[in-house]
Amino acid sequence: MRAISLIAASVLATTAFHASAAERGQGTAPYFEPGGAVRFNYGWLDYAPTSHLQLELLQADVDTGAGPFSFSAQYRWYDGFHAAHHAYAGWQFSEQTQLKAGIQKVPFGLLPTASQSFWFGSGYYLGIEDDYDPGLVLVHTQGDITWHVGWFSGDEYGSGARYDRYSFDVAQTDALPYRERQRLHARVEQTRSWAGGELLLGASAFAGNVQNTQTRRHHGHQGAAMHAQWKRDGWTTQVQWVRYRYDIPGKRIAMSAFQAPFEIAAQADVLSANVAYSLLRKDRLDDLTCYNNLSMTRPVGHGAGRRDSWQNVTGCSLQKGIMTTYVDWIAGRDMWFGGGEGIGISDGGPSQWHSRLNVNVGFYF
Q1: Do the Cβ atoms of 65 and 28 come closer than 8 Å?
Q2: 70-114, pLDDT tens digit by residue?
Q3: Rounded CA gap, 210 and 180, in Å?
Q4: Is the pLDDT of residue 10 over 80?
Q5: pLDDT-wise least confident of 33-37, 79-83, 151-155, 168-172
Q6: Domain limits at 315?
Q7: Spatial separation of the C-alpha atoms in residues 104 and 72, rounded to whole Å
Q8: Are strands 252-257 and 218-232 parallel, antiparallel or unpaired?
Q9: CA spacing 20 to 30 A to 317: which of 69, 176, 183, 270?
Q10: Which positions ≥6 away from 164 have C-beta within 8 Å?
Q11: Dihedral, CA atoms, 344, 348, 353, 355, nearest 10 degrees?
């Protein structure tokens, strides 16, 4: 269960590192901002031994730049392995257009994430949420519309046989010897006012390949998403639909991260519905946000070996100065982290819900 515990230690830092130079705009003075984090985690599980409070993450990051040029990198040390989170350079051509090159977040679906909880949604474990790969991304904003166009060479290490990584990528196993190859991404999102709040509407798509490392043959890999987000008076509501497909022989493919490979359905729909409410309490806390994140993975087609997977996370995040604490109740049915055999699959075991109480305390510098 160490790999499961380590996943919990990864999620928070997605939004914790400093703003990049691209977010500052063009023409800034030279700057250099080092940073880091340390996190502790405790988990009570109804499907495995309870984990003790333990140090699970050390993190170092840097943001630097001058004028239109920027650079951002982050590296992480977990229990038993270490991995790069991101490392990219950016160039701000104008106030509306930026190019980034390197290991960076893949522009797909709701950004920065289709969730508010420490554990993300099901899409994270399927490699379609908070995924970081090496490539080029052009971002252009025109009025209330933002475009992303990207090309990615594969996974961040160029090998599906390496399981010690942060992002979930296609894994090379004896039974399913695949690795990610080139992909093209496109994403568009529009911001508008609606019902007294801010409404985001967007769509994403990608097309690429995975390679069988034994036969050297390439197989198609496609995905599409539609998403919406509405914010008003501290409330945030998110909905998203994703369909992904691996055109491989058979009904499964393997994924891996945090030293643990597992299998998923080769084709599935992923539905997410989230609600969150943020209370600003400047007297005692900088922020208190409570949320419920529900996601479901439904394999395309029916038959033996496939089964719907569910995940629901109810919890709150508390922020005060450099400290951020997450308290989450995670429930899953046929979900890989919660005692399931994988995601969207069945090996004949019973279908039942499992749950976990998770507390994570992080300090960000």
Answers
A1: yes
A2: 999 999 999 889 999 999 999 999 999 999 999 999 999 999 999
A3: 4
A4: no
A5: 79-83
A6: 2-364
A7: 9
A8: unpaired
A9: 270
A10: 80, 81, 82, 83, 258, 259
A11: -80
Query: What spatial distance separates the first Cα and last Cα of the chain, rounded to whole Å?
Result: 29
Cα–Cα distance list, 92 to 27, 65, 97, 119, 134 (Å): 9, 11, 6, 33, 19
Amino acid at 103: I
Angle, alpha carbons 337-341-347 (nearest 5°): 170
| CA-wise closest residue to 163 among 85, 75, 259 | 259
Contact 323, 11 (CB under 8 A): no
The separation between CA 82 and the C-alpha centre of its own chain, rounded to angstroms, equals 18
The set of residues, in sequence order, having a beta carbon less than 8 Å from that of 216 and lying 6+ positions away, is none
Total domains in the fold of the chain: 1
Query: Which of these, 144, 226, 149, 134, lies nearest to 180 by C-alpha position?
Result: 134
Residue closest to 165 by CA, chosen among 259, 73, 74, 72 = 259
Rounded Cα distance, 332 and 24, in Å: 40
- Three-state SS sequence of 224-245: EEEEEEEEECCEEEEEEEEEEE
Read off the CATH number of the domain in which 261 is found.
Answer: 2.40.160.10
| Angstrom distance (rounded) from CA 109 to CA 189 | 9
What burial class does residue 80 get, using C-beta atoms within 10 Å of its C-beta: 0-12 exposed, 13-18 middle, 19+ buried?
exposed
Strand order in the sheet with 342-343: 169-170, 252-257, 260-265, 342-343
Q: Say how far apart CA 313 and CA 125 lie, in whole Å.
A: 14
CA 92, 97, 102, 103 torsion-angle sign: positive
Q: Which residue has the tokens 């790069």?
A: 84
Residue 34, judged by CB atoms within 10 A of its CB (0-12, 13-18, 19+), counts as: exposed
pTM for the full predicted model: 0.90
Quickly list H helices, the chain. 2-8, 21-24, 122-125
